[in-house]
Amino acid sequence: MTSAITQQTPAQAQPGLYGGKSSRRITVRDIAAAKRRGEKWPMLTAYDAMTASVFDEAGIPVILVGDSMGNAHLGYESTVPVTLEQVTMLSAAVVRGTRRAMVVGDLPFGSYQEGAVQALRSATHLVKEAGVGAVKLEGGERSADQIRLLVDSGIPVMAHVGLTPQSVNAYGGHPVQGRGEEAAQQLLRDAKAVQDAGAFAVVLELVTAELASEVRRSLHIPTVGIGSGADCDAQVLVWTDMAGMTDWPGGRTPRFVKQYGQLRQALGDAARAFADDVVGGAYPAEEHSFH
Ligand code: KIV
């Protein structure tokens, strides 16, 4: 499929999932229909209204207000400190900035691990206060009860298995998941468990390409890959990684990230040009002044 981001109009970019004359938002039914058609789709994160509006206009059908906001937007070292109020506030901004995309709000660490009732309370808050169309939470078998109650209560859930960044302290890093027979079998059980609990899609993060392919073939809900090879139904990237905005420690971009722009360089150049003009007296010029 041609990159949605480089196209002129959303309809050209996404003739299936995003295209047509409709101006309504993408729903879980559209996602299921795309899966039946065998159509791949892109997902990006966003954390503010203006960036989200750019992605919406570019034809990105699903926008995730990820707890990756911890690293990518709020200056933390991981997703762990992110709070439900932060996700709610930024999700509301992303909903306001979009017309077509399904906006998925991420349940942050500590907002659903206690059990299904806590998960329902947190997800209800996010849906009512921010207006998101779905929520995402991490975990396979261990989160099945939470997913089931949310779905039974009318809240669509995107699940997230493989590497689950909220457990970074338990992993002690970001290891590739599913290597070895036992780990592979557990991942397959996790993916099956979230599907059985009613999730409408499942993120596979940092899973070997072979295993991700096997998971996709064993499920009827779409798999959304990140660092999990090409054989997924959808692909997601953190927008700052995708656009070349992230300042990677030591300049080492992870292998799975492809940069489709050099925004960090472009924004720095703009800021330096502005500073030079102010210091040199070239800005504001006559045309920027009122009389
Ligand atoms: O928080 C996030 O942005 C995510 C994606 C990387 C899937 O969970």
UniProtKB/TrEMBL annotation:
Pathway(s) the chain acts in: Cofactor biosynthesis; (R)-pantothenate biosynthesis; (R)-pantoate from 3-methyl-2-oxobutanoate: step 1/2
Keywords: Cytoplasm, Magnesium, Metal-binding, Pantothenate biosynthesis, Transferase
Keyword Metal-binding appears in the UniProt entry: yes
Low complexity: compositionally biased ranges: 1-15
Positions contributing to 3-methyl-2-oxobutanoate binding: D67, S68, D106, K136
Region named Disordered: 1-21
Reaction(s) this enzyme catalyzes, per UniProt: (6R)-5,10-methylene-5,6,7,8-tetrahydrofolate + 3-methyl-2-oxobutanoate + H2O = 2-dehydropantoate + (6S)-5,6,7,8-tetrahydrofolate
Residues the entry annotates as binding Mg(2+): D67, D106, E138
Single Gene Ontology MF annotation: 3-methyl-2-oxobutanoate hydroxymethyltransferase activity
Cofactor notes: Binds 1 Mg(2+) ion per subunit.
Positions of the catalytic residues: E205 (proton acceptor)
Cofactor(s) listed: Mg(2+)
Compartment(s): Cytoplasm
Record Pfam families: Pantoate_transf
Keyword Protease: no
Matching InterPro entries: Pantoate_hydroxy_MeTrfase, Pyrv/PenolPyrv_kinase-like_dom, Pyrv_kinase-like_dom_sf
EC numbers, comma separated: 2.1.2.11
Subunit structure: Homodecamer; pentamer of dimers.
Role of this protein: Catalyzes the reversible reaction in which hydroxymethyl group from 5,10-methylenetetrahydrofolate is transferred onto alpha-ketoisovalerate to form ketopantoate.
Family: Belongs to the PanB family.
Xref: NCBIfam families: panB, PRK00311.1
UniProt-recorded name of the protein: 3-methyl-2-oxobutanoate hydroxymethyltransferase
Organism name: Streptomyces boetiae
Lineage: Bacteria, Bacillati, Actinomycetota, Actinomycetes, Kitasatosporales
